[in-house]
Amino acid sequence: MVDILIVGAGPAGLTAAIYARRAAKSVLVLEAKSYGGAIINASEIENYPAAAHISGFDFAQKIYDQAKSLGAEIRFERAVDLIDHGDYKTVLTVKNEYQAKTVILATGSENRKLGLENEDRLLGRGISYCATCDGAFFRKKTVAVVGGGNTALEDALYLSDLCEKVWLIHRREEFRGDESDVIALREKANVEFVLNAQVTALIADERLSAIEVTKKSGEKSLLEVSALFIAVGRIPENQNFAKWIELDPEGYSTASENCRTNVPGIFAAGDNRQKEVRQLVTATADGAVAASEAIRYLRAHP
Ligand code: NAP
């Protein structure tokens, strides 16, 4: 029986582990993939206080090392279910089951897909959800990015330094992401915006060779590209716990700023929680809040 079981070793989960260990609580972190969460794909982070420039990979490594050095146990197992017994909880993985007095769900989110025919088949053959992971394969080629948030803008900027040409396709006139990135992209000679447009088909044999783009007016065109980088947002990874945890219509936990879910002793932290601003700094802040709330809960339920 651990005091605090944390599902997810991203910035929120590992921060929660740091706070919980500093309060001398026993901590087990379960992670389905690799530690670091989505931030591991960020080529450079410039908006985390006191770290003017750091790569996502280095950030993930540092926060992992910090949690480990404080004594957090981290196991690489996917949590597939959760049972609330009232005064304790069981978390089931594919291999094991663990008992905990409290649980913090810091499961983050996964890439949203466009839902186009062949999108899955072409993954790694011209379709990518990670420009910093795959961009180098398309050096000096023509590529497209779809999306209008910060990820799409940053992907387009990153790719513009590697690729011959970058098409940036967005379904509206205005971008959702930061204006400073939009301005930087407008100054790039090899970046062209396609606004009020959707990617409606993937043209491919073995590999992607072109995309069909349809404007709001209904006008269709084909763009010849070697790759399409899809950056249309993320989907919260709460499905495995949905029978216990109240979710909003988009699948986010309805836990508020205090990170308490509808189930006493279960907390949600980071990108899987309903919130206005999803940033690294708000994810780590959630980790601190969730751990503090779990510690308060443990004090009240010795
Ligand atoms: P996001 O902000 O949710 O943006 C998703 C974009 O994809 C939106 O522009 C949306 O269009 C578009 N979209 C959604 N579904 C679509 C579809 N089916 N077809 C075409 N377009 C579609 O997601 P994100 O860019 O991944 O960012 C997620 C969060 O991380 C945000 O809070 C963001 O600020 C943050 N982030 C921060 C940084 C940073 O601070 N450096 C970097 C990356 C991400 P609409 O605009 O029309 O809805």
Strand content: 25-35%
Second rung of CATH, namely the architecture of the largest domain: 3-Layer(bba) Sandwich
Q: How many helical elements?
A: 6
Mean pLDDT: 96
Q: Describe the biggest sheet?
A: 7 strands, mixed
Q: Total number of β-strand segments?
A: 17
What would you call the structural class? Answer: alpha/beta
Task: Report the CATH C-level class of the largest domain.
Answer: Alpha Beta
Number of spatially distinct domains:
2
CATH fold-level topology of the largest domain: FAD/NAD(P)-binding domain
The coarse silhouette is elongated
- First-to-last CA distance: 13 Å
The ligands found in this model are: NADP nicotinamide-adenine-dinucleotide phosphate
What can you tell me about this protein's structure?
This protein is α/β, with parallel strands linked by helices and 302 residues long. The longest helix has 21 residues, at 280-300. It has 6 helices and 17 strands. Bound molecules: NADP nicotinamide-adenine-dinucleotide phosphate (NAP). Residues 47, 112, 114, 146-152, 154, 171-172, 176, 198, 231-234, 278-279 line the site of NADP nicotinamide-adenine-dinucleotide phosphate.
